[in-house]
Amino acid sequence: MGFFDFGTIFFLVAAVVIFFQLRNVLGRRTGSERPPFDPYTASRTREDAAQKPENVVSLPRKRAPGEPAIDAYAAIDAFAKPDTDLNWGLRTIKDNDPAFDPKTFVDGAKMAYEMIVMAYADGDRKTLKNLLSREVYDGFVAAIGDREAKSEKIQSSFVGIDKADIVSAEMKGGEAHITLRIVSELISATRDKAGAVIDGDPETVAEVKDVWTFARDTRSRDPNWKLVATEEED
């Protein structure tokens, strides 16, 4: 009987010791345990994770069956009538420069036109150099130099642009060339050394018609276009 009592006590003590050891090892919380799996919230958790990705690189989304393809030429077709030389020319430029947009180009060309006209009148070579090709720049600078040699000055006020229409577009090798017909209004007069008006009228708004061609190397990272040819329309 004493042996039995001693054995029972021994096993009870051993059980208690083992219990506390297991509790210390398995029952301790470190703060990094996984929460119990809940099948009713698991789907929502996955959706939330999909909505708030972290450090995920997005890949191009595959077009779903029946979903219409994005028309890369939509802006061009809205700008120039389809199946015309102008439309095809603009499409060719778009193929070589995916970021090209005809309306954005025209807006930029109008700004460049005003800057070039006023820079020429003011003899601002620095501005002209950034906007003109080498050949056109040399021609403008020669005219400015000739004017300065005679002590002549141009008095000019830019009124605005009435029309700016693309008349042709093409690729020449890797260069995109776009020609515009620009109709503007300008008050301009050239004065001699004594201040007398020798050309133009300082008080009359004159209509000016120009045909200008801009070009850009589509292989270059430089997004700027430069004036490569000028012509006055009668």
TrEMBL record:
GO molecular function: protein-folding chaperone binding
GO cellular component terms given for this protein: membrane
Major location category of this protein: membrane
Domain of life: Bacteria
Pfam family, one: Tim44
Chain positions covered by the region annotation Disordered: 31-53
Residue ranges occupied by any Tim44-like domain in the UniProt entry: 86-232
Annotated compartments: Membrane
Transmembrane segments: 6-26
Keywords in alphabetical order: Membrane, Transit peptide, Transmembrane, Transmembrane helix
Family: Belongs to the Tim44 family.
Protein name stated in the entry: Calcium-binding protein
